[in-house]
Amino acid sequence: MILFPAIDLKDGQCVRLKLGDMREATVYNSDPAGQARAFEAQGFEWLHLVDLNGAFAGSPVNGRAVEAILDATRLPVQLGGGIRDLAQIEAWLMKGIRRVILGTLALRQPVLVREACKLFPGRIAVGIDARAGRVAVEGWAETSELTAIELAKHFADAGVSAIIFTDIDRDGILKGLNIESTLDLARAVPIPVIASGGLASMDDIRRLCEPDCRLLEGAITGRALYDGRIDVTKALRLMREVRPC
Predict the structure, then answer these.
(1) Residue 55 backbone phi and psi in degrees, to 5
(2) String of DSSP letters for 183-222
(3) Domain locations in the chain?
(4) Which of 41, 106, 140, 202 has the greatest number of beta carbons closer than 10 A?
(5) Would residue 227 show up in a list of annotated catalytic residues for this protein?
(6) Can you point out the beta strands (E) in the chain?
(7) Which of the listed CATH numbers 3.20.20.70, 3.40.630.30, 3.40.190.10, 3.90.1150.10 matches domain 2-240?
(8) Which among 51, 129, 167, 171 is annotated as catalytic?
């Protein structure tokens, strides 16, 4: 199981939001590339990047920061936020992004997501962000009537490499992962699922290592990591010992 450290980019800085509110941003590092190097030195195996400005703008905004991170580390990187067409997908993959995360497109243009999966096999993930169980898009500014499971099922046979499921109601407030909803989603589709939103402490890490969570690909950690609420060495060791189903 993989523990993904999150680097959320706002105005070129590494931040964390509270409940997805851009007005509630805490700056943790003004040097995202340096933060990426630090995560690599700690032993993480992947990086999870989000262009927050891009998610709201509908096009990439923090491109320079992302490119600096790619230059600074050899870790595989997954990136989401503001990626809205095939040209942008291809451009990021050519620059070295290992996996592109499509969120708004999954709801607005599912046919394009399927096409991207065919063109770039194994390189496309779908981000499903839910508020009270309903899918939210456009940087979480709009909530649809579709449930997370309903949207995920649309891509069950599309070749999506992973689903990143975020419970917006828990994101950035250290409330704990919504394991129940995440597992419900993972059981509903044959796509690997990554838990996101609310990871708060080593209790969440230990919960992820229990047998029923072995069908998950991993989890994303943000504020708890930056605030020192988890023991990185111990967390990575525990999660590496988990064998997938």
Answers:
(1) -60, -40
(2) HHHHHHSSS-EEEES---SHHHHHHHTSGGGGGEEEEEE-
(3) 2-240
(4) 106
(5) no
(6) 2-10, 13-18, 21-29, 47-51, 77-80, 99-102, 124-131, 134-137, 142-147, 162-167, 193-196, 216-221
(7) 3.20.20.70
(8) 129
Catalytic residue among 8, 167, 171, 204: 8
Where does residue 12 fall: left (phi above 0), alpha (psi -120 to 50 degrees), or beta otherwise?
A: left
- For tokens 């989890």, name the residue: 219
Percent of the chain that is helix, strand, coil (3-state, to 5): 40, 30, 30
Query: Measured at the alpha carbon of residue 234, what is the angle toward residues 229 and 237, in degrees to the nearest 5?
Result: 135
pLDDT tens-place values along the chain, 245 residues long? 999 999 999 999 999 877 666 777 889 999 999 999 999 999 999 999 999 999 888 889 999 999 999 999 999 999 999 999 999 999 999 999 999 999 989 989 999 999 999 999 999 999 998 888 788 766 555 677 789 999 999 999 999 999 999 988 776 557 789 999 999 999 999 999 999 988 999 999 999 999 999 999 999 999 999 999 999 999 999 999 987 76
CA atoms within 13 A on the CB side of 194: 26
